Structure formats: C-alpha cells, structure tokens
Amino acid sequence: MAHLSGVSVDYYIRLEQGRARRPSAQVLDALARVLGLDGVEREHLHRLAHRPAHAPRRPSAARPRPELLRVLHLVTDAPAFLTDRAIGRLRHRRPGQPPPAGQPRRHR
C-alpha cells in the first residue's frame, strides 16, 4: 500500500496507527486510488481525516503517443502499462496477450 500510494512505509504505518495527525489531501487521494474507492467512499475517507475532499478527478483525456503504444505491444513476457502525468493508467497489457491487429509482433 505504501509503495503504490507513494508514501514511506513508516508514514503509512503511522497513518494506520492514527499517529499521523493531518495527512495531506494528496496522500488521501492516493490511498483512495490504490484502494479503488468510489467518490462517496473517497469523501468519507477525507471526512475521517478531517479534510474536505476536492472535486473528484475526471478520467484523463490524454492519449499515448503511437511510438509508446508500439513499445507497449512489443513487451510480451511481462506486464506493462502507460500512465499519464497524474499516474492514471492509459493502457495496459498482460503477459502473453497478443498485440492488437496492425501492431508489430515481437520476434524472438
């Protein structure tokens, strides 16, 4: 959880134990994202931490560059994903998943 939300393990432990007094809205949003909370659950988390929630983020409208998509589709033996600046996932692929039609295949 700590790594995925971008906080130190020590700070995350302090949050769990209630020893971190005022976590920032950014930390709360990161935790909500990692936990997969919906808007209502996210607001509740902010209320529990005595912080007003910001307006929910809209999904990213960013589109990955074609050359990045080609690289993503060449990675066949490991999971891979592309993110936007806010660490929102734009595209992903699972190991062994074939590339979409028209994308180059990796030669071994």
UniProtKB/TrEMBL annotation:
CDD domains: HTH_XRE (cd00093). SUPFAM superfamilies: lambda repressor-like DNA-binding domains. PROSITE patterns: HTH_CROC1 (PS50943). InterPro entries: Cro/C1-type_HTH, Lambda_DNA-bd_dom_sf. Residues 1-42 form the HTH cro/C1-type domain. Residues 85-108 are annotated as: Disordered. One of its GO terms (molecular function) is DNA binding. It comes from the Bacteria. This is Transcriptional regulator with XRE-family HTH domain. It comes from Actinomadura namibiensis.
